[in-house]
């Protein structure tokens, strides 16, 4: 496959996966752009990778860590916390309520959801991309899905599993990995 075809076919899927992990659309776009730039520079190697989309996502997330470490050294604590995006802002292709709940998950759970659900990787491939054990992937996925169900699935009396009233506008089906 040519790089141009790979980019066209994979950009949106990779962007959604990274967006779920980082929770900020602009940052996700920057990270995915950087990852695709690196993929283009190493295309002969990346094209032979068993899961090139996962390579893009992992590279984007690694880039985020590198940027964070560099920024942490440059910015003092007196600058205050970074801006937190409004979870009500619409993200193309993602339900705002789902994105808001995903942002509440711990980082590793978001990464597992991004790779398992958005990129449709199996447990083994997800473990390899994240550098963790398969059992750890399964545990993170189970915890993440339980948290999502508690927030998004409604019960017959019109409340969510956590007892809050349901507005009737969104989810009435279980979230499945």
Class computed from helices, strands and strand pairing: mainly alpha
N/C terminus separation: 29 Å
Series of H and E elements = HHHHHHHH
What's the number of helices? 8
Strand content: under 5%
- The total count of strands amounts to 0
Cα Rg: 17 Å
The outline comes out as globular
Give start-end ranges of low-pLDDT stretches: 75-85, 168-177
Largest pleated sheet: none
Percent in helix: 55-70%
Give the rounded overall mean pLDDT: 79
What does this structure look like?
With 177 residues, the protein is mainly alpha-helical. The protein has 8 helices and no strands. It has helices spanning 3-22, 25-41, 43-47, 52-74, 96-104, 107-118, 123-130, 134-152. α2 crosses α4. It is globular. The model is unreliable at 75-85 and 168-177 (pLDDT under 50).
């Amino acid at each position: 496959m040519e790089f141009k075809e790979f980019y066209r076919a994979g950009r949106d899927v990779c962007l959604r996966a990274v967006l779920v992990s980082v929770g900020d659309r602009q940052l996700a776009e920057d990270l995915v752009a950087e990852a695709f730039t690196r993929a283009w520079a190493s295309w002969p190697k990346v094209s032979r990778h068993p899961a090139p989309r996962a390579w893009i996502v992992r590279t984007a997330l690694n880039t985020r860590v590198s940027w964070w470490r560099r920024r942490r050294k440059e910015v003092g604590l007196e600058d205050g916390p970074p801006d937190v995006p409004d979870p009500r802002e619409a993200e193309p292709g993602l339900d705002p309520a789902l994105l808001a709940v995903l942002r509440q998950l711990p980082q590793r759970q978001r990464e597992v959801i991004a790779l398992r659900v958005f990129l449709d990787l199996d447990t083994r491939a997800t473990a390899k991309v994240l550098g963790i054990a398969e059992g750890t992937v399964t545990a993170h996925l189970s915890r993440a899905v339980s948290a999502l169900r508690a927030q998004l699935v409604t019960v017959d009396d019109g409340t969510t599993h956590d007892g809050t009233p349901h507005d009737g506008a969104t989810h009435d089906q279980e979230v499945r990995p």
